[in-house]
Amino acid sequence: MSTDERRISLRVKVPPEDGTAVVEMTGPAVPENGLQAFGDWVLAALEQHADGAAEAARLMIAALRERDWDGDDVLADQFDALLGSSAMPDLRPLPVDLDELAGILEGDPMYGGGRVDLATGEVWPAPAVDYAREIGQEDEDESDDPDKWLWVHCGGSRDGYRDMELFIGTVRDLGRADRLEIAISGRGAFRRFKDVLARWPGELDRWYAFSAERQRGRARAWLADAGYYVRKGLPPS
Q1: In the prediction, which pLDDT does 87 show?
Q2: Which of 101, 132, 142, 204 is the most buried (most CB within 10 A)?
Q3: What is the end-to-end Cα distance of the chain in Å, rounded?
Q4: How many domains is the chain partitioned into structurally?
Q5: What is the model's pTM?
Q6: 109/142 same-domain check
Q7: Which domain holds residue 163?
Q8: For residues 66 and 47, what is the distance between their CA atoms, to the nearest angstrom?
Q9: Looking at the structure, do residues 104 and 74 belong to the same domain, yes or no?
Q10: Can you tell me the mean pLDDT for 92-111?
Q11: Does one domain contain both 136 and 169?
């Protein structure tokens, strides 16, 4: 049975202590299935020695290596290390929400960027940082303390535009693909792209999954470059 045909089923403990969550994923090599998001479940399952976790991790490694999007190698390396196949990457754990991190990495450059609390993993968008200073909640020295904060600079929309181009390449209907190609030409590309996609709800849902997956992977890669890896006390919902 190929990787695309496998069904992964895990039992991961969640509060209350006597409860478990059954997590299933079909076709782990399919981009929209969220290898990055599902990977955090599998990491948690491995740390808990959950039934089926090692087999799930091996499938994830194969799917991540094959797909090879940004951040896939980071996640695959972490799986390899937990399975004992290689040394653990020289990174420090940080309980950060990758979706929130992606939001300030790839938001509007005028308002994007921010910081991450190195103790709690809390993501602070730039306006929240400015407000904390404005009301005197913290002084400038505290705001700039590198032992407390990991600063995040907004990279703008270039990667997001590339995501649209790549997504169009996955649209099987040539007429739809052609309309989308026209939509991303010139200013206002993101708005027009979503307006056109809204005509086909199934494709719009697929785009949201595709985009979120790629953003999450880039956030994971950025975090690794900064010297950290994602570790959550609990898997994501």
Answers
A1: 74
A2: 101
A3: 29
A4: 3
A5: 0.84
A6: yes
A7: 158-224
A8: 24
A9: no
A10: 89
A11: no
